[in-house]
Amino acid sequence: MDNHIIQINNLVKIYGKKQVLKDLSLSIPMGSVYGLLGKNGEGKTTLIKCLLGLLRPSAGSVRTLCDDPWNFRDQTKAQLSYVPQSDRLYPWLTVRQIIDYTASFYRHWNKDLIDRLVKEWRIDWEDKVGLLSEGQAQKVSILLSLGHEPQLLVFDEPVASLDPQARREFLKTILEIVSGRECTVFFSTHITSDLERVADHVAILNNGGIAFDGELDMLKEGFKRLRILAQHPLPADFSFNGCLRCETSDNGAIVTVNNYSSQLKEDLEKKYEAKVQIEDLNLEEIFLELTQ
Amino acid sequence: MINRYKQILFLYWRNRGFRILSGLFLFSALLSRLLYHGGYAYFLEEVITVLFIVSLWGAFYFGMMIKWQFASCRASLWPNYRSAHITIVLVLYVLALSIGCVWEFSLRALVYSSPYGLWGIYFTCLFISTLVTYIGYLSIGKILLYAYVLLYLFSLHASQFVQVLERSPYFIYALAGGFLITGAFFIHRLSNIKEDDFDYHFFFHWPPKNFFMNEMRASQNIGMLFNPLLRIFPARKEVIHIPKYFEEPGIFAQAFHWDFSKHRGLKALWGFLLLTMPLFFLLVNRQAVLDIFKSDVYSNFLLLAITPVLIVLGANYRRFCFWGYDILKPLDKKKYMGQQGIVLLISLVFYWALFAVYLGVLPNIVFHPSLIVAQRFWAYLIFTFDFSFLILCWLVLLSGLKSPVAVMAQVVAMGMVALVYFFMVSQFSFKELIGHMIACTLAGLYLCVKAYQVWCDKEFDSQ
């Protein structure tokens, strides 16, 4: 296995006449916590399902854990787990019964971990799954995905139904799992603050392709907002390489850039005889800049 | 590995519906033994009807449970999931077969008259389970609508139909081939079902909005199967929406206001019947069948009395999806509930009339005109409606009172009452029919009032 746990090349997925994923390529490094951001309907779930072999790509290739997802071997399946946006669990089983049922499919099952999480997440062993609230059911789904300690964990909007406390507990667990052993987590979310808290890599999906993928720190270092106040009025067509958005007024401008460096600041100050203030952008702002 | 198989078996066993239906199946087998050894062998043919109903119901439920397991991301992502589940499905099917074989052994008297009867039932069960795994839970309702007609068209004189089939030297090969082909489709389906399949999502979904959307999608796909029919009898393309409420003058107009699906299923059914009637007439026109048709005019009691109720409940079940929105409309809640009841009754009259005219009146006008002028025939026909009314009110009351599993058990109890009528109705005199008609109507009215009170109380906490 090379150092990429998932390798996607020129992936295309078409539903009827609608092309959802367009020539998308992405590599997920092993051991990373990889966040996938994208607007509604951009194809996050489709991408996840393609890389797990739940949907067949219309074109392109996907390798997950060095295997073809459409024909995963049982050994590969034992090394991954997936929590969908809304899981269809068996409503007539109790939490204990569904955990026992799930455990029976895996050679390795960390019973202590599950016992601890059931207690920490305040789940009742004897509750019927069908009577659980949406958030509680989501917690059970997550539990079921952790017991066999997979190499690859894939979550589709894992915290959407969870309350803030449960979200924190979930994120804490993810960090524990990743720090304790070699494990890759790939998850989609809308909650950028959560992603910032745990992810070390991020991919932003826009118009069926990847608008950005790479390390989160690199993304945040490159994206800055510059407040420029020049001695003289700025030209009407004021712009420069790397400028994503620019609002000018007389001799002032607010510019968002995606390739910030200290050299750029110096160049602007010198060229326009201006004072340049640098502001950091949070992930939500970067996401909006990239997808607007 | 043993633990895995044990857990999958528990998955079935822990489901109450599965336990009840398995119990009923075993009970019907046991009943047959008791009847045979108790010297009541002449009842055995009736027991096979019970077994047939219980088996089909079980096969349908089993199919739903199977699809629940296989149309899931788990089936593709858990190691050894499909192979283990398919093994257990086969084990359960073989178990059911073995119980049937024991039963068949005990039913020697019946087996002599119809050696392929049980195998026919098992084949039908396999076919039903396969059908459910292909088209899903919701679309089965649409299929059933058509299947009711087909089934009853031929089952009116099923024994003759079976005898004709059995005389063919190729029948045994056809049956064996049917088992193999259906079994292969069944296993192929379970081994390969993926999210890309068109019917993957057709489940009973909650909240109701999803349920309704899925049902519409399922209907569209089933509609495609009947495309040629739809071209001949084009259904008006309607955008389903919640109608604006306004005070219509009459109670019937108000009731129809709620029925915005405008009996689409009924229209299709009429068209289907019109097309299949010539086939039915051709079948009855054979001398051997015609003799039995004339001598056994009251054999279609269940068809006329029960089928309309099932169709009415099926057709109106979708109304539940909109109750949450409907109660926001400017009308008294008790009045709203009453209008829902009127919708059910009007639907019942329509569906019953459909079956009564096409399967009761028309064939007799053609083949048995002397019967049409007999008082007893008309009393019998109206009695089927009264019994339908009683059953409908009882089911509505039950659904307001009890859990679905309790309803299931009580439906079986009422089914027994219906079966008793089925076997006895041909012996009723005109006066007895009138007596039963009055009794059923009064009981129906009483249950209707109770059902109204229960539903007002259940939904709105107001009576």
How do the helices and strands line up, and which of them pair or pack?
The complex is a heterodimer of chains A (292) and B (463).
Chain A: E1 4-15, E2 18-29, E3 33-38, H1 44-51, E4 59-64, H2 74-77, E5 80-83, H3 95-103, H4 111-120, H5 134-146, E6 152-156, H6 164-180, E7 184-188, H7 192-198, E8 201-206, E9 209-215, H8 216-222, E10 224-230, E11 243-249, E12 252-257, H9 262-272, E13 274-280, H10 283-291
Parallel strand pairs in A: 3-7, 3-8, 5-6, 6-7
Antiparallel strand pairs in A: 1-2, 1-4, 8-9, 10-12, 10-13, 11-12
Chain B: H1 2-13, H2 16-37, H3 44-70, H4 73-77, H5 81-106, H6 108-113, H7 117-155, H8 158-167, H9 171-192, H10 208-225, H11 227-232, H12 251-258, H13 264-284, H14 287-295, H15 301-305, H16 307-317, H17 320-326, H18 333-367, H19 369-372, H20 375-401, H21 404-424, H22 430-460
Helix pairs in contact in B: 1-5, 2-3, 2-5, 3-7, 7-9, 7-10, 7-13, 12-18, 13-18, 16-18, 16-20, 18-20, 18-22, 20-21, 20-22
Outline the structure in words.
The complex is a heterodimer of chains A (292) and B (463). Chain A has two domains: 4-219, Rossmann fold; 223-291, Alpha-Beta Plaits (2-Layer Sandwich), CATH 3.30.70. Chain A has ten helices and 13 strands. Chain A has helices at 44-51, 74-77, 95-103, 111-120, 134-146, 164-180, 192-198, 216-222, 262-272, 283-291, and strands at 4-15, 18-29, 33-38, 59-64, 80-83, 152-156, 184-188, 201-206, 209-215, 224-230, 243-249, 252-257, 274-280. In chain A, helix 6 links the parallel strand 6 and strand 7. The termini of chain B are far apart. In chain B, helix 12 (251-258) packs across helix 18 and helix 20 runs antiparallel to helix 21 (404-424). Chain B has two domains: 1-225, no CATH class; 257-463, no CATH class. Chain B is mostly helical and 463 residues long. The chains are: A alpha/beta (292), B mainly alpha (463). The interface between A and B is medium-sized, with 26 and 24 residues.
